[in-house]
Design a protein that fits this description.
- The protein is 42% helix and 18% strand.
- The chain has 200 residues and is α/β, with parallel strands linked by helices.
Length: 200
Amino acid sequence: MSIGIIVGSVREASQSARIAEIVKSRLDALFPETGAEIFSLKDLDLPLWTEDKWTAGSAVNQQWNPTSERLKACTGFVFIVPEWAGMAPPHLKNFLLFCDKGELAHKPCQLIGISSGMGGAYPVAELRMSGYKNNFLMWLPDHMILRNVEQLFSDAQPTELDQSLQDRMDYTLTWLVDLASAMQSLRCKNQRLDLYKNGM
């Protein structure tokens, strides 16, 4: 089993990337037998999606295929999503368009919103509304929003708020890993993306 951690920011030294490292450390501590891999959209440097993605052997596909295989090997995901002008970043929506070959299909995902202020809710609502459609990602019912994120998990000695958020994170990550394990056999049994490749 492996959990993929998707960093939705392309900024240098982003808070999303910092939180991704914290999530990975919690997964490693709680589930040492479960691998955790970080996928940074900054490092993936995907081109803007075009219909060439649907053409076998295209340059776009050749660039995407290694990432596609890595994503297919994951059994669940954590998406760390900053709020840019009240929206999910365009790079993340572009990434979701690329995931049309079952990379994320019927795999559970923990959604973590990031805000430097008191926002963070709009990207969560946006992704819950449409972010799953043709990739069939399964958002967990619980999500987290880390507000004033620069002040969180920043001291050597955790604050009371840090500890409370870590406890909640551990709770949701435990659900994620358990559900990811349970879903493996169901995906093998029921998944028919060859027939039903588009969500309703």
